[in-house]
Design a protein that fits this description.
Blueprint lengths: L3 E7 L4 H11 L6 E6 L5 H18 L4 E5 L3 H10 L3 E4 H13 L17 H15 L14 E5 L5 H12 L3 E5 L2 H6 L13 E5 L2 H11 L8 H17 L4 E3 L5 H12 L7
Parallel strand pairs: 1-2, 1-3, 3-4, 5-6, 5-7, 7-8
Helix pairs in contact: 2-3, 5-6, 6-10, 8-9
């Protein structure tokens, strides 16, 4: 199948349209060129983006896919009536049936949260992000008692992106701490982690994959050598087993999958909204 152009058209940031649209597109083995067009909040802007979509349809010889989250009915009407793409009206598909089901009208807000800066969730999330940045890669051992989770594992096993994802998406205060050769020689966890073992969660990785990742950073070094990677991974997994620390391999898992597993184990309430 030839590549298709996919537009995400929104009167807000377009993040909702793109996130949901990508989840749907992931079900199909297609190549897609993504184009986000945010802040389409007037008929004039709608006509402009429709013109762009129609030009793409003519140039490529097939209609683009358009995921739209447009609250204003006049703006949506322009897109629906004049666009030569396949329009997926996400509000019309989901919001209107739910209005009928609940017997009430939706807020019809532009964007996800009009009062986001005032919400407790927003402030908790910012606090969690700041905490995770301050406690990235063992930079600080202060205040680990307030951490929700401490990710441990060898360098480049996925600790930093996972901790930041947990902070940004779920407001989880996630620290991460590297396990290094000196820890393996001592055959025990780093001293700052010992009082907080119950909060630790381990990440491991296939040694071959680890060597490949490290070679991108330090090509030809002992740090990236396959034998060294095998040693570190084996020692880290042994240490986590001895100390009763739950762990999983990040080799074939997305950050979302890793984070969901961690949440399931440490904060199952965060999986309920």
């Amino acid at each position: 199948m030839t590549a298709r152009t996919v537009y995400f058209v929104s009167d807000g940031t377009g993040i909702t349209a793109e996130t949901f649209g990508n989840s749907i597109l992931a079900q199909f083995s297609i190549k897609a060129r993504h184009v986000r067009r945010p802040f389409i909040d007037s008929a004039d802007k709608a006509h402009a983006v429709v013109g762009e979509i129609n030009e793409t349809a003519i140039r490529e010889g097939q209609r683009p896919i358009v995921f739209a989250t447009l609250v204003d009915r006049d703006v949506l009407k322009v897109v629906r009536e004049h666009c030569q793409g396949r329009v997926m009206d996400m509000f019309g598909t989901f919001i209107e049936p739910l209005e009928d089901e609940f017997g009430i009208k939706s807020n019809h807000r532009v964007g996800r949260f009009s009062d986001v800066a005032e919400s407790k969730e927003y402030h908790d999330r910012i606090e969690a992000i700041n905490f995770s940045l301050a406690h990235d890669d063992g930079q600080s051992a202060k205040n680990l008692d307030v951490a929700d989770v401490i990710l441990v594992g060898v360098s480049r096993s996925g600790k930093t992106p996972t901790s930041l994802y947990l902070a940004m998406q779920h407001g989880i205060k996630a620290a991460n701490y590297p396990l290094i050769p000196e820890d393996f020689e001592r055959r025990k966890l780093p001293a700052p982690l010992l009082p907080h073992k119950r909060k630790c969660f381990g990440l491991t990785i296939d040694p071959e994959r680890l060597s490949s990742i490290r070679n991108e950073r330090r090509p030809g070094s002992k740090y990236a050598d396959l034998l060294n990677c095998r040693y570190e991974v084996n020692e880290a997994e042994g240490m986590m087993k001895r100390d009763g620390i739950s762990w999983l391999s990040s080799t074939h898992k997305s950050i979302e999958e890793i984070a969901t597993t961690i949440l399931r184990d440490i904060r199952p309430d965060r999986l309920m909204y």
